[in-house]
Amino acid sequence: MILKDKIRQRSARVGVIGLGYVGLPLVTEFARSGFDVTGFDIDAAKVAEINAGRSYILDVESREIAGPVAAGRLRATTDMSHLRDMDAIDICVPTPLRKTKDPDLSYIVKAVEAVRANLRAGQLVILESTTYPGTTIEVVQPALEGHGLKAGTDFYLAFSPERVDPGNATHSTRTIPKVVGGINPLSTELACDLYGSIIETVVPVSSTQVAEMVKLLENTFRAVNIGLVNEIALMAHRMDIDVWEVIDAASTKPFGFMPFYPGPGLGGHCIPIDPFYLSWKARQNGFECRFIELAGHVNASMPEYVVERIGEALNTAKKAINGSRVHLFGVAYKKDVSDTRESPALDILELLHRRGATLSYTDPFVPKLLHGGLSLCSVPEDRADGVDCAVVCTNHRSFDYGAMVTRFPLIVDTRNALKGVPGAHIFRL
Ligand SMILES: NC(=O)c1ccc[n+]([C@@H]2O[C@H](COP(=O)([O-])OP(=O)(O)OC[C@H]3O[C@@H](n4cnc5c(N)ncnc54)[C@H](O)[C@@H]3O)[C@@H](O)[C@H]2O)c1
Fold first, then answer.
1. Catalytic residue status for 192
2. N or C: which end of the chain has fewer CB within 10 A?
3. pLDDT tens-digit map of 381-422
4. Percent of the chain with pLDDT over 70
5. Cβ of residue 409 lying under 6 Å from some atom of ligand 1
6. Dihedral sign, CA of 65, 68, 70, 76?
7. Is 119 helix (H, G, I), strand (E, B) or coil?
8. How many Cβ atoms are within 10 Å of 59's Cβ, its own excluded?
């Protein structure tokens, strides 16, 4: 049976490489829609959790895994030779930056090597990892064709960016429209057929490069607008204007304005990283991305600014950072998630540590934190005692903000979590 029919009848076997924040929700969506799914990961602990029917990601409930595992429709493995049995393969591995801010494609390269070693005619391979325009045809395609099979005719190849937003209860893998670009029309069509079976809206585009650039435009748009609003926040503070009130009032305009909010800095595996994939590729083409560099500069300076504001707050009580007890509320990079990758809270902790503060934190999603020379455990919210200054770094919904206002002598609120609450001891960004 040809792949198109297998997809239509949901008898196609789907493999997902990389079972993280992107791969695991995708696996459950394929399983829910009746496909036979195999998850591939180099992390044996994740593989064991899935096979035991347990989720390790907040957005995925264990029952969404346990059901299909028990029914024999879902399994995970570290054995890449099973890729040969798959009809369609989705690659969802990390794409970090090197220290030099250059793209680190090593995870993609490793995953593609595993696919190539097991490639057979008729398979559909889709890259979902966020990357610079050209990766699919310049890096993935030549690597896969190394064994003599031709992309577009012997096997099919596409790029489809993942847009999942961890912690977002409104939009899920199923409801977020999926952009798809193949290396030729048949690859696009097959990839659209596959995603069309599990996702409400599929948006085909003319090439893999367009699909790759779509994702980078989306995340660059966020990074630049956050950079702009962070700069406006610094400016407003100098002018003694409440930036939060300004943004709220500007948001009443029914067209032409979209609110972005200042904060302690960028975090997560996307916004602080992805724009630099684009600027790197642009540089290869002799083009300098000034907006990206400038926004990166402003956003990266925010943790330092927050520490400066903590110093100002302590100063009002005739105290120095050195020797003061500073307690952070939230260390995850955004509210209601457990992900601490690139979290600005880590930079803030490190800067405060270097200045001699005694540090503690509360984060219900992050029980332990190892960063640089710091090793801390989350303190239950009601046991953060003897604190000189509390800092709201992440506005988790579960925090008791009302209690916070009366319990701590000084509060630096980087998220406007204490919106509208009066008090000379509250210092907003
Ligand atoms: N996290 C997000 O919110 C988000 C949103 C959209 C797009 N993305 C993009 O999706 C991609 C994956 O991100 P993520 O957040 O899911 O990463 P993650 O770190 O949560 O998961 C990646 C998984 O891949 C596994 N892995 C690494 N190398 C492998 C290999 N060679 N073979 C098999 N498994 C391997 C890791 O063990 C890990 O489990 C990245 O390119 C990211 O930019 C992430």
1. no
2. N
3. 999 989 999 999 999 999 999 999 999 999 999 999 999 999
4. 100
5. no
6. negative
7. coil
8. 20
> What's the CA-to-centroid distance between 96 and ligand 1, angstroms?
9
The two three-digit tokens of residue 418, written as one number: 């204490």
Q: Using only the alpha carbons of the chain, give its radius of gyration.
A: 24
Instruction: Return the pLDDT at 1.
Output: 61
pTM of the model: 0.94
- Give residues with Cβ within 8 angstroms of 115, minimum separation 6: 17, 83, 89, 91, 125, 144
Ligand 1 close to Cβ of residue 342 (< 6 A): no
**Is residue 17 within 6 Å of ligand 1 at its C-beta?**
yes
Top mutation candidate among 17, 22, 116 for ligand 1, by most atoms within 8 Å of CB: 22
Tell which atom from ligand 1 comes closest to the C-alpha of 274: 43
Order of strands across the sheet that contains 358-362: 358-362, 325-329, 389-392, 411-413, 426-428
Residue 242, Cβ neighbours under 10 Å: how many?
A: 12
d(CA 251, CA 259): 6
Which amino acid is residue 335, in one-letter code? K
Distance 22 CA to ligand 1 centre (A): 6
- The residue from 270, 289, 389, 393 that is catalytic is 270
- Of all protein residues, whose CA lies closest to atom 21 belonging to ligand 1? 20
105 contacts: CB under 8 Å, gap ≥ 6: 95, 131, 135, 139
Distance 271 CA to ligand 1 centre (A): 14
Averaged confidence pLDDT in the chain: 96
Expressed in angstroms and rounded, the spacing between residue 416 Cα and the centre of ligand 1 is 31
* Cβ proximity of 375 and 342 under 8 Å: no
Longest dimension (CA), the chain: 77
> Would you say 299 and 275 are in contact if contact means Cβ atoms under 8 Å apart?
no
What count of Cα atoms within 13 Å lies in the side-chain half-sphere of residue 416? 14
Give the single-character DSSP code of 339.
-
How far is the C-alpha of 173 from the C-alpha of 132, rounded, in Å? 22
Q: If you count them, how many residues does the chain have?
A: 429
Q: Is 159 in the pocket of ligand 1 (CB under 6 A)?
A: no
pLDDT of residue 166: 86
The residue whose CB lies within 8 Å of the most ligand 1 atoms, and thus the one to mutate among 269, 271, 343, is: 269
